[in-house]
User: Fold this.
Amino acid sequence: MEERTVTTTAAIMYVIMLMIGLGIGLLIPYFLCHIDPNINAGWLRGFWHGSNFIGNLILSLFDGRLLKAPVHTAAYNFFWWFFTISSCLMWLGFCINMIKGLGKILSGEYAQ
Assistant:
């Protein structure tokens, strides 16, 4: 019975930490990554908008925000695509590792 309690507590803590991480991942684009359609966006904005693509994508479902600046340079376009693909792969790896970790916790692999 003791092992089951430890496993359940670890799983609950794991899910809480996951929710905190996802919350921070949404707060950064919400407060710091508004895309102004009237500004000619350069490479640095391409990096920033691409890096926060997943957060902006989720937030765009609720407030209709832009995912990519309509007025931009070629460098913006390159960096936006590069960092959008990179951030999507990072989030995919993050989610896969979280699911694997939760499975190991629930199976008792980490129980002592």
Notes: The mean pLDDT is 85.
